[in-house]
Amino acid sequence: MKQLQAYFEFTTLKTSWRQEILGGFTTFISMAYILFVNPSVLGAAKMNPGAVFTASALASAFACFVMGIVAKYPIASAPALGINAFFAYSVCVGMGVSWQTALAGVFVASIIFLLITIFKLREAIINAIPADLKFAISAGIGMFIAFIGLHQGGLVAASKSTVVTLGSFSTPSTWITIIGLIVTAALMVLRVPGAIFIGMVIATIFGMVTGLIAVPTHWVSAAPSLAPTFGVALHHVTEINTLQLWVVVLTFLLVTFFDTAGTLVGLAQQAGYIKNNQMPRVGKALLADSTGMMVGSLLGTSPVGAYVESSAGIAVGGRSGFAAVTTGICFLLALFFSPLLAVVTSQVTAPALIIVGVLMAQNLRKIAWEKLEIAIPAFLVVVGMPLTYSIADGMSLGFIMYPITMLFAKRGKEVHPLMYGLFFVFIGFIWILNY
């Protein structure tokens, strides 16, 4: 035990087994929905839902173990939302590409991803991002996940006339979120340890007692077979032979690249890892994501990336890589306890996302708002993420504006050369996605 504590630097990080296990479990509970959402989304591409469920759990566990053991960060990974919808609805349904070929596209993108990680291009880019924009990324992710929580919890709803509006309190399930939010907020103010997790437990109990959440009839089930998707990507790599499919590969690469980069920076900022604008062991953290994406494609799922819900685990005390290891173990156990996970609905996890959004928004005070050349791109990052519903798109707005405002402020020499390069990359990124 002492050797493990030393390896994960418990003393330096001022953490404990209790904090790390609670942090890892809280992260898992906050992102466990992907095990049910991903099979549903990829099912639209005619993939076997059971196989996708198993592939998602195994790929997530693998990425979490690499992140925790090698990179030593409390950051969990799983098949990313958004890019899985692009995989299913844009590539397979919209373009008519078979899911087998699309999976091969993810595999090819993951190989490129791994190569640029090994050659430290991703690490160089992350370290080139100025501190103010890193704070903006963290705060923007906070706004983004709070918006997700408000929407999933029913407190914010879509509106044809005003885009979004206040949700309906006559919807019974919304009260699960309301009760959970009030309890969690009260416990946070009282500084009760594990407040976010306790809030989710109470919200779940409230849902089951009121009949809003169905009590499982059984608790254990066998893991679905992986046979329908396992290794399929390798057999269809030669089908990536047209300009259209290479554009698909490039899109998988770019979206995952900037989504994971933004998420890693934001979460590392929240956990207090970034010192002197540098993220320690960033290369190893990026390796965890790139290998997770590759393994996921071979198992049979859409691109894997770091999850913003890791912020929930960090908020309850997770600081070392053991928190990510705990999340990985939970994903493996989830293979056999899928009926139990069904009680953790989106209304249960919504309060956690909202409260974590509050915590991450505190980074706003560290941005040099008095300097417009910094404030304008930082603001675009912060509001861009929730309003475009994409971390990568929000980053693109701010990163395109940053060199422009700095040049007009006669501070162009202070801009890292890579930031000028990203200016053109993000313009191309937006062009590819929208034309």
From TrEMBL:
* Superkingdom of this protein's organism: Bacteria
Q: Where is the signal peptide?
A: none
Q: Does the keyword Transmembrane helix apply?
A: yes
The answer to whether UniProt assigns keyword Nucleus to this entry is no
> InterPro entries, per this entry?
Azg-like (IPR045018), Azg-like_bact_archaea (IPR026033), NCS2 (IPR006043)
Main location per the UniProt record: membrane
Q: Which Pfam families match?
A: Xan_ur_permease
Q: Show the GO cellular component annotation of the record.
A: plasma membrane
Q: Name one GO molecular function term.
A: purine nucleobase transmembrane transporter activity
Residue ranges annotated as transmembrane are: 21-45, 51-71, 78-97, 103-121, 133-152, 172-190, 197-219, 243-265, 286-308, 320-343, 374-403, 415-433
Compartments (UniProt record): Cell membrane
For this UniProt record, give its keywords in alphabetical order, as a comma-separated list: Cell membrane, Membrane, Transmembrane, Transmembrane helix, Transport
Please give, as recorded in its UniProt entry, the membrane topology of this protein: Multi-pass membrane protein
Q: Which protein family is named in the record? A: Belongs to the nucleobase:cation symporter-2 (NCS2) (TC 2.A.40) family. Azg-like subfamily.
Task: Return the protein name.
Answer: Transport protein
Its lineage opens with:
Bacteria, Bacillati, Bacillota, Bacilli, Lactobacillales
